[in-house]
Amino acid sequence: MKNPNSAHQRLTPSQRNAFIACFLGWSLDAFDFFIFNFCITAIAADFHVKRAVVVEGTFWTLAMRPLGALIFGALAERWGRRRTLMLNVISFSIFELASAFAPTLTFLMITRALFGIAMGGEWGVGAALAFETLPKERRGFFSGLLQEGYVTGNLIAGLVYALVFPHLHMGGSWAPWRTMFIIGAAPTLLVFYIRSKVEESPAWIAGRGETAVAPKRGLSLHDIRTYLPSFVFLILLMTAFTSFSHGSQDLYPTFLQADRGTNDFWKGMISNVSSVGALAGGITFGSLSERIGRRRAIIFAALLAIPMIPLWAWTHHFVLIALGGFLMQFAIQGAWGVVPAYLNEMAPSAVRATFPGVAYQLGNLLSSRNDVFQEKIAEHHFGGDLTVVLSATVAVVAIILAIMTALAKERKGLDMSQAL
């Protein structure tokens, strides 16, 4: 058996730089997203509202991501992946910084919605650039690694929160959570790397050469009608996927603090251990999908999450909770590790920067109020305790995801380096 890491050694400088840029873009985008989740309790205290009111910010971010996928995907088809990716990074950094200076909760909700537009564009554009540049032979491995950029962002957010937030000054008019958002604006520095090191997608360049008079227009109504059955199915599949990840991650820091009594340091560190498990799971199942197929890898990982529930949600010792978090996210993000390759292989070549991203983010839209529902159900039926709600979410969604994936098609090994 070949070592999957050897794929990285075979990359050309152009391929390596493209992958690094896309991985960092997705990681830093996720870092900005999770900073908000770690600060939910602090924001609620600062604005004197219940947690459920602040969780609406997560909803607005998720709800606006499909619009970002459509806008930035269309720009990537017309302007190219590289330039659009730079614009995307600048955009989400600006809106993250604006969140730090929100004078009211309403203003904060607006900046989180705008951040969602920028966040929604990054995944589709970055994935298209990566998979149109990387060798197809090890696409599963790089799919797992690329998707776990999201987990890496969560890991960085957890580390920064654990190491920085407890030491911030708690008095005065400047709330500590605002400093966290200022730190979150740092990803804009990635633009300099993309500008100096990253080359445009060879498939996009070849396609532009053949259609110089009529540049790519993005996903049109004709495209949607043509590919409607597969498009709708992928949206529903991504709804299950996003419910799986966000349903287990977004409120977990709040669960650790409010229901398990962890302090800020342990809340961050347990989340970090979970992120390490997620990173390992994504790479493991992404690589495994090259041998057993995309669908079988997803089903195996999804069902593996169910027996992890007792350790993950029902124990009280910090070490056991951390172990449960590691194993749970190993399974959940193991399934997710197959997604970038699977969606890009299923997408029509002419709209690859738009189709996967829009399907992914529309799935996010359909599941975007899950956090709010989880919080409200916990408040109304379990005295605010999230244990039962989180457990039920993982069990139900894992079964649904496994069934839907079993019904799906597969195009493993599709050549994506040709002209669009």
Provide tags for this entry:
420 residues, MFS_dom, MFS, membrane, Sugar_transporter_CS, transmembrane helix
General description of the model:
The longest helix is centred in the N-terminal third of the chain and has 29 residues. The chain has a single domain, classed as MFS general substrate transporter like domains (Growth Hormone, Chain: A, Up-down Bundle). The relative contact order is 0.16. About 3% of the residues have low confidence. The chain is globular. The chain starts with 5 loop residues before the first helix and ends in a 14-residue tail after the last helix. Helix 4 runs parallel beside helix 6. It is mainly alpha-helical and 420 residues long. It is found in: Membrane. Keywords: Membrane, Transmembrane, Transmembrane helix. It is a multi-pass membrane protein.
